[in-house]
Predict the 3D structure of the following.
Amino acid sequence: MRSSLLKLVAENLTIDRGGRRVFQGLSFAVEQGEALVVTGANGIGKSSLLRTLAGLVPLASGTLRLDGGLPDLLPAEQAHYFGHQDAVKPALSVLENLHFWQSFTAPCEPGGFSGGKSTPLEALETLGIGHTAQLPAAYLSAGQKRRLSLSRLLITPRPVWLMDEPTSALDKASEQQLLGLMNTHLENGGLIVTATHTELTLDRIRSLHLKAADPGSIPADTAEDAVS
Amino acid sequence: MRSSLLKLVAENLTIDRGGRRVFQGLSFAVEQGEALVVTGANGIGKSSLLRTLAGLVPLASGTLRLDGGLPDLLPAEQAHYFGHQDAVKPALSVLENLHFWQSFTAPCEPGGFSGGKSTPLEALETLGIGHTAQLPAAYLSAGQKRRLSLSRLLITPRPVWLMDEPTSALDKASEQQLLGLMNTHLENGGLIVTATHTELTLDRIRSLHLKAADPGSIPADTAEDAVS
Amino acid sequence: MSGWAMALFKRDLRLSVRIGGSALVGVLFFLAVVTVIPFGVGPDLNLLARIGPAILWIGALLATLLGLDRLFQADREDGTLDLMMMSGRPLELVVLVKCLAHWIATGLPLVVAAPLLAVFLNLDPVSMAAVTATLFVGTPALTLIGAIGASLTVSLRRGGLLLAVLVIPLAIPVLIFGVSAADAAIHDPVPFLTPFLILCALTLIAAVIGPVASAAALRFSSD
Amino acid sequence: MSGWAMALFKRDLRLSVRIGGSALVGVLFFLAVVTVIPFGVGPDLNLLARIGPAILWIGALLATLLGLDRLFQADREDGTLDLMMMSGRPLELVVLVKCLAHWIATGLPLVVAAPLLAVFLNLDPVSMAAVTATLFVGTPALTLIGAIGASLTVSLRRGGLLLAVLVIPLAIPVLIFGVSAADAAIHDPVPFLTPFLILCALTLIAAVIGPVASAAALRFSSD
Amino acid sequence: MAFWDYANPTRFLRLVQIVLPWLVGLCVITFAVGLYMSFQAPEDYQQGQTIRIMYIHVPAAWLCMMCYTVMSLSSIGTLVWKHPLADVSAKSAAPIGAAFTFMALLTGSLWGKPMWGTYWVWDARLTSVLVLLIMYLGLMTLWRTMDDPIKAGKAAAVLTLVGALNLPIIKFSVDWWNTLHQPASVIRLDGPTIHPDQLWPLLVMALAFTLLFFVLHLMAMRNEIMRRRVRALRMRAASIAHPGTAAATAQPAE
Ligand code: HEM
Ligand SMILES: Nc1ncnc2c1ncn2[C@@H]1O[C@H](COP(=O)(O)OP(=O)(O)OP(=O)(O)O)[C@@H](O)[C@H]1O
Ligand SMILES: Nc1ncnc2c1ncn2[C@@H]1O[C@H](COP(=O)(O)OP(=O)(O)OP(=O)(O)O)[C@@H](O)[C@H]1O
Ligand SMILES: [Mg+2]
Ligand SMILES: [Mg+2]
């Protein structure tokens, strides 16, 4: 596989949600080892952007590609998404949760990226919830659940991390730990796109501030040529 | 009605959740015009405490009373709860939502407290979403929904405000606005109990930092003194 | 009704009528069930006419119970239920009002649809009227009893089926007297009035037990 | 099955076994429906025996469809579905595997319970066997067709009833051939095998259409 | 100008503006002629006056099937060609189809009373129509339970196509079911052999009904587009930061 530099390139993205144009003509590029920090007011479209990169919200127009990634995979299939929801099944034990994700998620190791190699137990230890491995996930507190879902990112190699307000509802200690993990991911040659309201102290930051172009985002469908 | 000083008094509260002892023997008192700011690590029990004050989580033991309040009402019935959920019905218009809460929630005006007198429209204007009054709440963005649910507190007089991470997921501007409202509530002779991870700049703060008594909260039923 | 009750009543009606509301799904399900049964038992009109009242009642029973799962869940999920408990209004009355609104939005349409569906089962006018009357009196009981199940399952995600399982045993008396009243009207072993009055009595009892029990269940389930 | 499919299969089985026995609920509902119908129809044993297969099939139909609403919703609510779409596995297969696990957890118990319930309806051994066989072959089709409804209603918070309404018309052929195969085994207007084979064919068709359609619906509903 | 260009709703609306009046006029005339002919037509030797029901019943029955075909095509347009007007067309066709189906059922059973002495028999064809009605209603419910028109459109499109695949199977199985049971009380519904001077009015009425369908469909599509624009405007009103302008925009809605 080509070992050229990994680069996530977005060219004038336009996103509609619920029949409303969230933003249009947004372009940016993130290189290997960089973190793109997306900021902006409530409802400006940070989460929408991340979900679009994750392939969960369809693009109204624009292109999205991962240069240097595996050619036959979508960008979304080479990315981890860490959003508001934990994707943790309370009925399964912590370890069962992790094992499932490890064997279910298809790994992806393009050239120049090394990481996501740790075993489930190691990952839990790293995040300081190793002692809960055998417990049903139902017994975890909000914060612990969040860490469990974070450990998903450590056990399957994928170069792109998409993180939506990763530090929300985390106390100071856990927040520092998380930042550490993100930095190691960058060192391993991964790249990160994250939305946040607080400022994050990462190594190589490239920041993107979303602003409402005009008072109120234009509804997609009053634009001349679209119904909805 | 007696116009003595309002005072929310909690004497060694013990709370169990999901069969686990969250904390025990917690005592504090908040006076009129004061804000009690509850801090602590994830999963320590801030939300649980607030929900207990709101009468939503049963007390394992301990007493809870509002001195100077209306004698025949529970403390919970003299309090507004502003938690993670918005209690906004998307299918109803913004104004319909507010009107319902105004006519449904029983008001409570003990002596020395004046506030919560504004009409729904005024409240919406105060929060800067007056222009959405006639629109279905479904069209509001996350931040706007949160403000709508906040305006509930302004249209029905209740002296106690219980707020769980009120500033979470709010951008800087809205956060300032919220703090302003909380201060006016204090000036009106109300009192506030709020849990937060960020520090709030309020007039008269009394702070309560929750710490885990011992690593890992004890399961309630193994605790000697409590039969939950 | 006092102001707050009226407000709650109006709100619930609005919600069930507007987008995402569940007003008509129940009737459709009723229609679907009644249509499907002949595919099983066969198109013999005499047979269908004979078990017609039973089919209609069972259809109504299922439609009512299965439509009840969102009665409290919707309010629980968005935090409305918490606020209702803090509102300082008697929870029993709140439940009663909600049941009333829910019945008008989903139960009444069933009663209205019954005569039309009776045509498919070629019931004669008399039994048609009888079934409709019994449904009119009986379905409120189903809603009120179902409310208990609704509040027991409010914290569980999978409402419908479980709710039905919990409530059906309690609802059997209603079914029995409903059907037998309808049958009595057609070929009378017993006068129509006896079972009909018992049915009314059942509804009244349900109107007391239902709200009290489900209010209690809601209080316990709050967390 | 390749590794990931196996992992998914095991996980879904575990979940449905551990979470409050959702398998049990289905069977209980089946039981409830089948026992309620005699209360309506009346205790005429010949009549019951005659419409017995129909009752069992209709019960199974309802139990299957109404139990399907959580098939994707549970995964959607906690964000699992999003990750599944990003997982790089063909969504059609994911759906197929989930349906398989769901059928084994909730459909199979129905098939097992059928002979017992057949006793209540005093079916003779032959028809008992016939009904069970047809259910065994037919219920997978119901699950697979129902999956379409499940993914159409995945974003709506009130699955059950609506799902049933959407899917019942599509499930009618399965019901017809299931019942008539069972009847054919008892008093044969036609040989048992003809409808039975058609039933198998229907199941195979459903195994293709179901996953494809519901995968498409899931993709469109993602947001 | 290729039909494709009418993908643009604004242009489509302009087209409707022009076409609709003519269509309405034509429809009215055809109805007048058709009704006149059908009352001139000789009454049936065995059915008497009731034969005239046929002139309503049969066209309605035909159209309730044609309407589903239109919906299926529109659904393909939605899913395959992503045609912006396709799901508008499908959505606005559904209630019309349901109405025609209901009319077929109603007239049919009104006809059935004199013919068979009962309003309803579980005859294969009748039953299939009933199932079709349920499918129409189900689709309409699906549409009105989802707030987001695009999502609703796609979901409904999937269901419509699956239904289209299933309809033949349903028809087949219902026929099979019916012939299996040989219900004693049923007169097979093959209808009277149609005499030419009964056929002509029937055909004219069929044409009239078809025109009626297109008139209603175009109107419904226009309304749906307007409805979506109102929705969009209100959404913008919601997200506008300056109340002044927003209030102005918010007014016209409702
Ligand atoms: C609710 C009852 C009825 C329904 C749902 C119904 C349905 C239909 C349908 C769907 C068609 C179109 C069939 C096709 O073109 O392939 C049709 C045609 C027709 N129906 Fe009915 N029908 C009903 C009652 C009746 C009755 C009572 C009569 C009188 C005997 C009748 C006579 C006819 C005739 C003569 C045609 C046209 C000939 C043909 O297309 O085969 N229908 N009906
Ligand atoms: N599921 C959805 N359906 C329809 N519209 C949505 C949906 N989610 C968000 N929106 C709309 O899209 C716009 C952007 O929302 P988004 O959540 O991306 O903003 P955000 O920047 O993440 O806000 P926040 O800082 O509160 O997270 C908002 O106007 C919102 O109303
Ligand atoms: N609904 C619940 N059922 C059972 N246990 C719960 C529930 N909610 C929370 N808990 C447990 O109660 C304890 C306190 O949780 P709580 O949410 O009060 O913590 P918190 O201080 O609010 O944490 P955070 O800062 O993440 O909000 C945790 O151990 C948690 O596991
Ligand atoms: Mg966000
Ligand atoms: Mg908390």
In short: Chain A touches chain B at residues 40-43, 138-144, 146, 165, 168-174, 197 (CB under 8 Å). Residues 172-187 of chain A form the longest helix (16 residues).
